[in-house]
Design goal:
The chain is an alpha/beta fold. It folds into two domains: about 290 residues, Zn peptidases (Aminopeptidase), CATH 3.40.630; about 110 residues, Alpha-Beta Plaits, CATH 3.30.70.360. About 35% of the residues lie in helices and about 20% in strands. It contains twelve helices and 14 strands. The strands form three sheets. It has a six-stranded mixed β-sheet. Strands 7, 8, 9, 10 and 11 form a five-stranded antiparallel β-sheet that branches. α3 links the parallel β3 and β4. α1 crosses α12 and α8 packs antiparallel against α9. The two termini are about 15 Å apart. The structure holds zinc ion (ZN). The site of zinc ion has 6 residues, from loops.
Length: about 400
């Protein structure tokens, strides 16, 4: 058989994804599989079972990243790698992350059953805590592995209940022996849903991201003065929640004010003591700013600092702004990006070039190895929600593009 005629098994990919969607299934048809939770452990156990079934060499590193390796004819050459993440957002979808891991698994199964001889080793990877919703920051596993984050700092990151990444890795039995330290990688491919509306809008099956926008995360802590609401007159109050309200609207107005292609969001807020008859004494909220233009984001950060301090002073509610995460915008490898486009064309899939507005493990990977991503359409552009959906035929198309990207690179 001509290797160019090789295709993945779309039905098998579908049933694998459906089986994974049972782990942490929600009543609304989504998935709740937070990083290092019991559900994450179950999904990891199943992945490892599947990796062993096709005789891959399995390794778990000290960050809980899982690797499955297929040897190559020239086994000491740097490998071709592909994967994504198994963890989900709270009440998230059935495709985000898991498609990239199951897609790579399906590629490995196809290569195995057709007894394809690969020159370079091929590796599949599941990165720990990509979502960053239980433990911030996002992309912690790939961040440590690529040397962009400190292992012990990552271990000490806590969830809302004070549980640490290090402890939770141990609890679920995934604090592995191998060092979370990068090795040379020849090419890294990540298949992922688009998570936006563009591919659907232009009616194309395959998205070819040129790169990923820069992302910054901030935590804002406001100190007000809690008091009984009735006897305390309006004058002279120090209402932390009202301060936050003003700041949040400032965040919303920021992209229009800065110009360019920027989005800014406050997605999480904690009000204390959160009682209807107490003036809010403390508020913590998060800010997420994204743009392709890093200097513009620098200026936006300055604007925000100044604006927040003004509000804090005016309302006499001191505010502390902590920058907890920053990644610069990331252009992908030109050669691999072109390769994704050529392969999509050879397979007869209409493709479209775009920029990823979401962060992915590929962000860190592209800083240490030639990297490209393959997007497939999200129905209605919805993601990080239970209704997140992608047509099975599009999952299959993405899997086929991934197959030939990996085959060409590992040939
Ligand atoms: Zn993802």
């Amino acid at each position: 058989m001509d290797i160019r005629d090789l295709r993945i098994n779309g039905e098998r990919l579908k049933s694998t994804l459906e089986r994974m969607a049972e782990i942490g299934r929600t009543s609304g048809g989504g998935v709740h599989r937070l990083a290092l939770s019991d559900e994450d452990k179950q999904a990891r156990d199943l992945l490892i079972k599947w990796l062993q079934e096709i005789e891959l060499e399995v390794a778990v590193d000290e960050m809980g990243n899982i690797f499955g390796r297929r040897a190559g004819k020239k086994d000491n050459l740097p490998p071709v790698m592909s994967g994504s993440h198994i963890d989900s957002q709270p009440k998230g979808g059935r495709f985000d992350g898991i498609l990239g891991v199951m897609g790579a698994l399906e590629v490995m199964r196809t290569i195995q059953e057709n007894q394809i001889e690969n020159t370079r080793p091929i590796m599949i990877v599941d990165w720990t805590n990509e979502e960053g919703s239980r433990f911030s920051p996002a992309m912690a596993g790939s961040g440590v592995w690529t040397g962009k984050l400190e292992r012990d700092w990552a271990y000490a990151r806590k969830d809302f209940h004070g549980k640490k990444i290090g402890e939770e890795l141990e609890r679920i039995g995934y604090k592995g022996q191998a060092l979370a330290k990068r090795w040379p990688v020849y090419a890294y491919f990540e298949l992922h849903i688009e998570q936006g509306p563009i591919l659907e809008r232009v009616g194309k099956k395959i998205g070819i991201p040129q790169g990923i926008v820069g992302i910054r995360w901030y935590d804002v802590f406001i100190e007000g003065k809690a008091n009984q609401v009735g006897p305390t007159p309006m004058e002279g109050r120090n209402d932390a929640l009202c301060s936050a309200a003003e700041m949040i609207l400032q965040v919303e107005a920021l992209p229009a004010q800065m110009g360019g292609n920027m989005v800014a969001t406050v997605g999480e807020i904690h009000n204390d003591p959160n009682s209807r008859n107490i003036i809010p004494g403390q508020v913590h909220f998060t800010v997420d700013i994204r743009s392709w233009d890093d200097p513009l984001t620098d200026r936006a950060e300055g604007e925000l600092q100044t604006g927040f301090q003004k509000i804090a002073t005016k309302r006499n509610c001191p505010a502390r702004i902590e920058k907890i995460w920053k990644v610069e915008h990331t252009p992908f490898d030109e050669f691999l990006v072109t390769q994704v486009g050529k392969i999509a064309a050879q397979l007869g899939y209409p493709s479209y070039s775009l920029v990823s507005g979401a962060g992915h493990d590929a962000t860190y990977m592209s800083q240490v190895a030639p990297t490209a991503m393959i997007f497939v359409p999200s129905i209605g552009g919805r993601s990080h929600v239970e209704v997140e959906n992608t047509r099975w035929e599009d999952c299959e198309a993405g899997g086929n593009v991934l197959l030939h990207c990996i085959l060409q690179s590992a040939r």
